[in-house]
Every structure is written in structure tokens, then in C-alpha cells.
Design a protein that fits this description.
It comes from Candidatus Microbacterium stercoravium. It is built from 8 helices and 2 strands; from the N terminus they run ββαααααααα. It has helices at about 20-30, 35-55, 60-75, 85-120, 125-145, 150-160, 165-175, 175-195; strands spanning about 5, 10-15. The protein has a two-stranded antiparallel ribbon with strand order 1-2.
Length: about 200
């Protein structure tokens, strides 16, 4: 019988208990420990880069965002709160946020180019209405996510924003894989209902 599972090179006991090695390193980084930062970088860079690349697709932009993420980790490690979550999750959240920001910036630039082109050829364009619709949809999603029970929200956030697989989530939160699958299925169903989406 397996005694441990390996997730991204980290041994995780089957009972789901796991030391937060990244969290321990983050606390040392907050004190200015460069060796801890190098160790943290080596431990997580492949995982962080993979998440960013999935969002951005473009390799060179992903490399730039990876640098920005670890610069932010170095500068803001003191804001990491071990009682609120694991270090790896905190860093992956920063990475996802940075990648999404880069997508939004690229999209805004493309939108400006389209509006300039439409203005040049005289086709009316209602960007205010489009922005309002996007803002409302975003607020609905945040509100719907906030209405979920904590266990369902945690599973969905780890999967969709943290980039974790269901098996990894199971090990991280210490719940059986079947329970994680149920939480995610029920959470997604509830999100659809909250947002009024019909299948």
C-alpha cells in the first residue's frame, strides 16, 4: 500500500497532512533570506510557469509574468498569512492574478486598436455598454462564488485559480478524492443556478 503520494516533487502522506514547505520558506523570505528565496524559486518555478503559460499561451509573455510574480513574492512575502492558507496557494494566486491582468491589458490594447479602426471607417461602437455588461457578469460571478459553502468554494478556487488537480486538492485539504469531486460538482451546479445559467 502507498504510504505517500508525490505531488510536484513534494511527498504528501496519504492522510492528507502536509507540511507547508513553501509557507516556511515564505516566512524566511519575509526576513530577507535570499537562500530561502532561491529554494522557494527552485521549488515552485515550474508549477507557477505552467499556470501562467496556461492562461497566457504566449511563452515570452509568460516568462515576463513569471519574473513579475517572483519579484512580487520577494517584495510582499511579509503579507503571507500562514493561518489563512498554504504558501504555494498564495504564490499561485499571485501568479494567476498577474496572468489575468496581462490578458486584460492585452485585450484592452486590442480593443483600443479596434475602436480606432472603427472610428476611422465610421462604424459606431458602444464600448460603454460592453464594459457595463462585462462588469455586471464579473460581479455576478464573484457574488455567486461568495454564496457557496466554504468547502465548495475552496475546492473550486484551488482548481480554477490555483491550478490544482482534484487529487492535489484532496491531499492539500485532507479530504477523500470522492468528496472533492462531489464538492466541485455541487459547487459548479450551484454557481450555474446562482448566475441563472441554463445548461
Amino acid at each position: 500500500m502507498l504510504v505517500e503520494m508525490v505531488i510536484d516533487g513534494t511527498d504528501v502522506p496519504e492522510d492528507g497532512t502536509a507540511d507547508d514547505a513553501a509557507g516556511v520558506l515564505l516566512l524566511r523570505v519575509a526576513d530577507g533570506d535570499r537562500a530561502a528565496f532561491a529554494e522557494l524559486y527552485d521549488m515552485l518555478t515550474a508549477r507557477v510557469f505552467g499556470l501562467i503559460l496556461r492562461v497566457l499561451v504566449n511563452r515570452s509573455q509568460s516568462e515576463e509574468v513569471l519574473q513579475e510574480v517572483f519579484l512580487e513574492v520577494w517584495q510582499s512575502a511579509a503579507r503571507f498569512a500562514p493561518n489563512k492558507g498554504q504558501g504555494r496557494t498564495w504564490i499561485l494566486t499571485i501568479a494567476h492574478r498577474r496572468a489575468v491582468d496581462r490578458v486584460r491589458a492585452s485585450q484592452a490594447s486590442a480593443d483600443r486598436d479596434v475602436r480606432a479602426g472603427l472610428r476611422d471607417i465610421g462604424i459606431p461602437h458602444d464600448s460603454v455598454a460592453e464594459q457595463a455588461e462585462l462588469g455586471i457578469a464579473g460581479e455576478q460571478a464573484v457574488s455567486a462564488l461568495g454564496a457557496l459553502p466554504e468547502a465548495q468554494r475552496e475546492a473550486l478556487v484551488l482548481a480554477y485559480f490555483g491550478g490544482y488537480s482534484q487529487s492535489e486538492i484532496s491531499a492539500l485539504v485532507g479530504s477523500p478524492l470522492g468528496t472533492i469531486k462531489t464538492r466541485m460538482r455541487d459547487g459548479l451546479t450551484r454557481l450555474r443556478n446562482e448566475m441563472g445559467v441554463t445548461a
